[in-house]
């Protein structure tokens, strides 16, 4: 599994490119329940105050070639909690370092 690698992805034509961390891949189950994020039944993120997507429940079972991405700044991150899982074809590259 390639969990925690950073991917450069193209989600839509309006969102040119995003860099996000891979939370889950093929065969994984992701549940978002009132802001809590669970990966295969284990809580991996707490709810974030002020985030509108906190209420309700979303479930994802990732098929082959799908990834669930999450950002580092959970309060404002535009990630799979907003746009859902992505297809492998949306991956434009893997980030191998930064300049800062």
Would you mind describing this structure in some detail?
There is one protein chain. The protein has one helix spanning about 80-85; strands at about 5-10, 20-25, 30-35, 35-40, 40-45, 55-60, 65-70, 85, 90-95. It has about 100 residues and is mainly β. β1 and β2 form a beta hairpin. The longest helix is centred in the last third of the chain and has 4 residues, at about 80-85. It is globular. The termini are far apart. The mean pLDDT is about 80.
Question: What is the compact description of this entry?
Answer:
The chain is mostly beta strands and 100 residues long. The chain has one helix spanning 80-83, and strands at residues 6-9, 18-24, 29-33, 36-39, 42-45, 57-61, 66-70, 86-87, 91-95.
Mean pLDDT level: 78
Spatial strand sequence of the major β-sheet: 8-7-2-1-9
State the order of secondary-structure elements, H for helix, E for strand: EEEEEEEHEE
Gross morphology is globular
Number of continuous helical runs: 1
Radius of gyration: 13 Å
Main sheet characteristics:
5 strands, antiparallel
Question: Would you identify the regions where 5 or more consecutive residues have pLDDT less than 50?
Answer: none
**How big a fraction of the residues is strand?**
35-45%
- Category from helices, strands and their pairing: mainly beta
Percent range for helical residues? under 10%
Number of strands: 9
How far do the termini sit from each other?
A: 27 Å
């Amino acid at each position: 599994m390639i969990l925690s690698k950073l991917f450069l992805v193209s989600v839509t034509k309006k969102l040119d490119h995003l860099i996000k961390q891979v939370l889950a891949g093929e065969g994984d189950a992701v549940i978002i329940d009132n802001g809590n994020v669970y990966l295969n039944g284990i809580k991996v993120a707490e709810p974030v105050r002020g985030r509108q997507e906190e209420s309700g429940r979303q479930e994802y079972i990732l098929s082959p070639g799908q990834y669930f991405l999450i950002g580092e700044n959970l309060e404002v991150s535009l990630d799979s909690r907003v746009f859902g899982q992505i297809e492998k074809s949306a991956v434009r590259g893997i980030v191998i370092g930064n300049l800062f």
